Amino acid sequence: xxxxxxxxxxxxxxxxxxxxxxxxxxxxxxxxxxxxxxxxxxxxxxxxxxxxxxxxxxxxxxxxxxxxxxxxxxxxxxxxxxxxxxxxxxxxxxxxxxxxxxxxxxxxxxxxxxxxxxxxxxxxxxxxxxxxxxxxxxxxxxxxxxxxxxxxxx
Amino acid sequence: xxxxxxxxxxxxxxxxxxxxxxxxxxxxxxxxxxxxxxxxxxxxxxxxxxxxxxxxxxxxxxxxxxxxxxxxxxxxxxxxxxxxxxxxxxxxxxxxxxxxxxxxxxxxxxxxxxxxxxxxxxxxxxxxxxxxxxxxxxxxxxxxxxxxxxxxxxxxxxxxxxxxxxxxxxxxxxxxxxxxxxxxxxxxxxxxxxxxxxxxxxxxxxxxxxxxxxxxxxxxxxxxxxxxxxxxxxxxxxxxxxxxxxxxxxxxxxxxxxxxxxxxxxxxxxxxxxxxxxxxxxxxxxxxxxxxxxxxxxxxxxxxxxxxxxxxxxxxxxxxxxxxxxxxxxxxxxxxxxxxxxxxxxxxxxxxxxxxxxxxxxxxxxxxxxxxxxxxxxxxxxxxxxxxxxxxxxxxxxxxxxxxxxxxxxxxxxxxxxxxxxxxxxxxxxxxxxxxxxxx
Lengths: 154, 440
What we know:
By secondary structure, chain A is mainly beta. Chain A contains 1 helix and 7 strands; from the N terminus they run αβββββββ. Chain A is globular and about 45 Å long. Chain B has 2 domains: 143 residues, Thiolase/Chalcone synthase (Peroxisomal Thiolase, Chain A, domain 1); 222 residues, Thiolase/Chalcone synthase (Peroxisomal Thiolase, Chain A, domain 1, 3-Layer(aba) Sandwich), CATH 3.40.47.10. In chain B, strand 10 and strand 11 form a beta hairpin.
């Protein structure tokens, strides 16, 4: 077969989250520098990620609740090869699982820290990453004890 | 959340479960040797399915018209209605047709389902296959599977698309790396031990003429000196995807024996299907290898949401498999654990009960995992040494277990091998399945 002209490679866009009806309050909250997580009125469980029904008891009586967002690094890795070409500019990627004080675990990345300084168990606080597309991602940075209680500065 | 697997295990222990009697036999096996660079003719996965099925049936001494069940994984040519597509293409009339979607655990999941169907009396001869060679290139404009995120779903509404992928948490390396880092913080990590898993398995691969790395022995130092991809995983601790493919015939004891008699008696009744002729003139019949126990357990897709990152679902799966088979861990002669990463092997040895949680690093250090050692593990080289033939990768462990129990493993044969323990791992320690195989 004759050579087919190949389209020029497009810049690879990073995948961005698309909120659903079940999750919109969370993403809206991040836009205000707030961490909002649903809690089950029936069994008291924190529900992460947000769902229409509580995993386990399947109650649909959930209440959005503002959390401090403070927690600790449950585990992490330093990805030295991009997990996907779209993330090559973030190398080395500081991928982490953060456990909030309430016990739920989130997928995130760590910022404002040297890769060699990351340790499991270290205290972290939210770093609200406001994107130009209006979406805010919830990243985490080492906790600053001098800034308790109030959300991160705007 | 810690110890989240305990209630499930307790329930398993206290509730009387029925299971296999051990009647079903893995009667035939076939496998394309993994190839890093496949240069043969590209064929559709349906064509490969038919080819692998013919080879596995010939190995069992059974004929296509005896097939009354099939189990398949995904086909490249068809997103839906996969089992009927396979049945039609092969010209089979089946009473049992399954598509199994358990990632790397699919082969083990396929075989126990086939064995269960045979014991239920639904069918006598079930072919399970996972083609994994490259398919023909699609001309421009043809509809094509759009999977730029691999096993991670970036479809709107998928939890991964919303809460994991936007942070770059996708593919397998980072998930396994984070499990390993958690293990390190909680229980202690010995890089030389995980490296030794790769090195010992490579020793096994060197004794396997079908292994992609048969000519490249490695040492613990080689592994530790190799590039770190995602801390703490070195590139030599990460499996290499290859072209491949595999099929297995699961049959009732009667059907298996019928096939054995044909093979033992030459080519009687087989017509031209006896493709696996033995050049040495020996009987081509094989020792029957029975499926005597299995277990399967799932809790998550993404490890962020695992109840416990270092106590994996293989635990309940293993407990069920051993209880069903009625054997002890000490009865096992070869352990063939899924090995997409070295940490997968370590966690599987611990959670399967061969050593206590947290003792895996010392266990690996203190035992010789090679085929001539005191605790043979992945005697074919594992997928790390043999090559991971795509979805057929998990079949390499299962087929090696069968080959060892048959006593046909050649240079790497473990003497007196009667019991093989095989595991399958899908995703990131997410889909987990265990199987006990025993010689008659």
